[in-house]
Amino acid sequence: MTTRQSERFTAHVQGRVQGVGYRVFVVHRARALGLDGTVRNLPNGGVWVEAEGNRAKLDTLLAELRQGPPAARVESVSVTWREPSGAKGFEIGWS
User: Which of 24, 28, 53, 82 is buried most deeply by CB count within 10 Å?
Assistant: First the structure.
């Protein structure tokens, strides 16, 4: 039996998360944790986060996604765990 070195999640964040520095907050936190992935605004007012890396660090990022930066008001974070994709770097994506 092999264990994975890396895991990945996608998260849909709802609430007051656009226009409040949420994407920049996610990029800074993900990079500080050494994670790879992307964050982007969604047309419905939410934010989409895809992150890959060590499970403990992903769990830390998820906890921070639920808090957000000071001006944000996170109402919900819906998470789906997926197979790693081999992403490199963490960037703001564009819809």
Answer: 53
Q: What is the CATH number of domain 7-83?
A: 3.30.70.100
Phi, psi of 46 (to 5 degrees): -90, -175
C-alpha triplet 46, 83, 94: angle, nearest 5°: 35
pLDDT single digits (tens) 31-74: 999 999 999 999 999 999 999 999 999 999 999 999 999 999 99
What is the residue extent of each domain of the chain? 7-83
> d(Cα 83, Cα 95) in Å, to the nearest integer?
22
Cross-strand partners of 38: 50, 91
Looking at the DSSP assignment, which residues form a beta bridge with residue 48?
A: 12, 40
Cross-sheet strand order for the sheet of 73-82: 73-82, 7-16, 47-53, 36-41, 90-92
The C-alpha atoms of residue 48 and residue 39 are separated, in whole angstroms, by 6
Catalytic annotation, residues: 23, 41
